[in-house]
Design brief:
It is a single chain. 62% of the residues lie in helices and 0% in strands. The protein contains three helices and no strands. It is elongated and about 130 Å long.
Length: 125
């Protein structure tokens, strides 16, 4: 029988290298997962910042809507109310005069060159 010499030292070194290789692969997969989670975290933070800014803007609008200035602005523009002592002036034209008619100018067509006319005849639908 051939004498096979088993060197336990070499086997231990090869096993250690194999285990180290497996650990590097696992570390790489964990780093990939960490990078994906960090990207997702950045997205969620951006969404949260937008939501906070929207909330602040809406709170500002609610505060303005409940103020006296907003009520007065609405009353004068949409409600057609007036303050005590004011006189409402509605502009009207003179009786018998015709309203001014504004004529719209007709655009002048630009002349086409001969090659553009032929191109249009042959290739345009």
């Amino acid at each position: 029988m051939p004498n096979i010499s088993i060197n336990f030292r070499r086997i231990a070194i090869l096993a250690g290298i194999f285990i180290l290789f497996l650990m590097v692969i696992e570390f790489n997969s964990r780093l990939t997962a960490l990078n994906e989670l960090n990207e997702r975290l950045d997205e969620v933070r951006a969404i949260a910042t937008q939501s906070t800014q929207t909330q602040i803007a809406q709170q500002t609008q609610v505060a303005y809507a409940g103020s006296d200035a907003a009520v007065e602005e609405w009353a004068r523009t949409e409600g057609h109310y007036m303050k005590d002592g004011e006189q409402v002036v509605i502009p009207v034209g003179e009786p018998g005069s015709e309203p001014a008619v504004v004529s719209t100018p007709i655009p002048i067509p630009t002349p086409m060159q001969n090659w553009e006319v032929w191109w249009g005849l042959f290739f345009d639908k």
